[in-house]
Amino acid sequence: MLKLKTLLQQHSLTQAALARELGVSEATLAQIINHNQWPKRDTHDLKSGIERWLGQRGVNARDCFDAIASRKNNPTVLNKEERMLLKKQVLLPATKKHFGLFRAPFDDNAVQSHEDVFMTPDNRYVREALCQTALYGGFVAIVGESGSGKSTLRRDMIEYINQKNAPVLVIEPYVLAMEDNDHQGKTLKAASLAEAIVHTLAPLETLKRSPEARFRQLHKLLKESSRTGYRHVLVIEEAHSLPIPTLKHLKRFFELDDGHKKLLAIILLGQPELSDKLSERFFEVREVVQRCEVIDLPPLDAHLTDFLAFKFKRIGTDLNKIITPDAIKAIRQRLSYQRGDQSTASKQRTTVSLLYPLAIGNLVTAAMNLAARNAIPVIDANIIHSVH
Fold this sequence. Notes:
Layout: H1 2-10, H2 15-22, H3 26-35, H4 43-56, H5 80-84, H6 93-99, H7 121-136, E1 139-143, H8 150-163, E2 168-171, H9 190-201, H10 211-227, E3 231-236, H11 244-254, E4 257-258, E5 261-262, E6 265-270, H12 273-277, H13 286-289, E7 293-296, H14 304-314, H15 325-334, E8 336-340, E9 349-353, H16 357-373, H17 381-386
């Protein structure tokens, strides 16, 4: 919209006056003028209003609009579903000053202890399931979208173990660059899991070279550690990238015992693709499915306002000073979309929610930065809908 911006500057007309005439926020108009990003609705009425306002002031408004970008001729324009999941947003120093904040509410550093973790009844159940598995054994898979809080709950479990001084050894294999096939990355195989277990239990012990000797070594170390009073839990993040053979091998790890006592609990953390791999319809992994409890982490649909209030309270401010109620409604709209069900004759549409902590935090952070740039004191619905 450089043409319109140039016209305003040439005729000493302000964006604020135009925004008042159109009945939109200054942030919305700034997005139109600076980034050619129009609201989803009323584009035609807004254009007509701009042309009429300019004409009343003796400005020739013909061809004052740049072409609206489309995905077809501009691959950088994202579709509706892709726009909802913004890239990582950082609260700018100027934004903190604008809102009178000293800490960012959604940064990783905002979580320093268990008290900083927002808990819903679903999250509490998952946390308890993780802690009980670590303390008493079991095989569970926690499934949730990216940014749903799986890693936060894993850290919360480890903090719980440390605070209780519980005799639990947490074994976490490195999953950097892990993929479910060797064409895209490095697969995590049973041998790598055995290596992680041995190195955790006996860091100075040399790993046996042959698979038979290595697994005997692993079993022996688990028995010795168990007899001294320790429990062991194997925690695998990004478990949706585990190859099927490794998933099948996990059953054998889980069945390691010393008499009646199981020696190794297993926790898998992964995205929804993990549910597909652990489906009862998947014949290859049926023995794993029979032993593994799958728990889903749902979105924060009914808890959005409470989540936001909690996050801002933890940094010492009131939610109502930052975000208006209509903005919270707009957040819900932005992070939901309709998906058609092609499997039914009626082609019913289902509302899909993306109200997960990471997505909410990114959207609100971007909105706060946008409000600060335009000197707007409180985030309203127009600001939320103007974020791109």
